[in-house]
Amino acid sequence: EFVLTQSPATLSLSPGETATLSCRASQSVGNQLAWYQHKPGQAPRLLIYDTSKRATGIPARFSGSGSGTDFTLTVSSLGPEDVAVYYCLAVSFGGGTKVEMK
Amino acid sequence: EVKLMESGGGLVQPGGSLRLSCIASGLNFNTYGMSWVRQAPGKGLEWISGLSDSGDGTFYSASVKGRFVISRDNSRNTLFLQMNSLRGDDTAIYYCAKDSDPDIRGYFDLWGQGALVIVSS
């Protein structure tokens, strides 16, 4: 069974800091991985596809990297608007990382 | 305006059936893969089904395979999800999502607002 494991479950950071989110696949997905941002009461939003390509309208503060089984989403200059749950997706969604503001 | 709009959600008894619809507007519907993603209360996102642009390729998660059927009518710009043998753990918000590709890739660049399905007696 294919599994995506995200860590940490919760990330609590101060404004202006950098969030580093991890996603690990149980088997290689090449570079076929996407990242989504999901805020309460809203539809999810595509941030990154093909591991590192930003979706239309996504600011450069969001960047993705990795390959094979280990992937990272980096969100720099964190602001209140970035408070959300972030999911990686390849075949199935990871469990999500909740980003909170201190 | 480019948008997706789901309909057909509601309250259904365990073992019952429900059909969700998703109407697309402002886009060339027949050139994109489409999917259904759900979120149960207090849980994360779950990709449950996908369908390629022509309908040749399909995807079902293990949790719904054999109970749910995805289909599309490109002449009406509409995606469907027929849900049978519903269970309590199918209670969720169901989102319709457009892929950025004709195939089912999981790169959903447009989402509907969601339809709530509650399975309860």
Describe the 3D structure.
The complex is a heterodimer of chains A (102) and B (121). Chain A has 102 residues and is mainly β. Chain A contains no helices and eleven strands. In chain A, the strands form two sheets. In chain A, strands 2, 4, 5, 6, 9, 10 and 11 form a seven-stranded mixed β-sheet that branches. In chain A, strands 1-3-8-7 form a four-stranded antiparallel β-sheet, with no helix packed on it. Chain A is globular and about 35 Å long. Chain A starts with a strand and ends with a strand. The mean pLDDT of chain A is 97. In chain B, 0% of the residues lie in helices and 50% in strands. Chain B is globular, with a radius of gyration of 13 Å. In chain B, strands 2, 4, 5, 6, 9, 10 and 11 form a seven-stranded mixed β-sheet that branches. Chain B is mainly β and 121 residues long. At the A-B interface, strand 4, strand 5, strand 9 and strand 10 of A face strand 5 and strand 10 of B.
Keywords summarizing the entry:
heterodimer, A: 102 residues, mainly beta, 7-stranded mixed beta sheet, 4-stranded antiparallel beta sheet, 11 strands, 0% helix, 52% strand, B: 121 residues
Q: Output the structural class of chain A.
A: mainly beta
Provide the low-confidence segments of chain B as ranges: none
Uncertain ranges of chain A: none
Instruction: Report the count of strand segments of chain B.
Output: 11
Strand content of chain B: over 45%
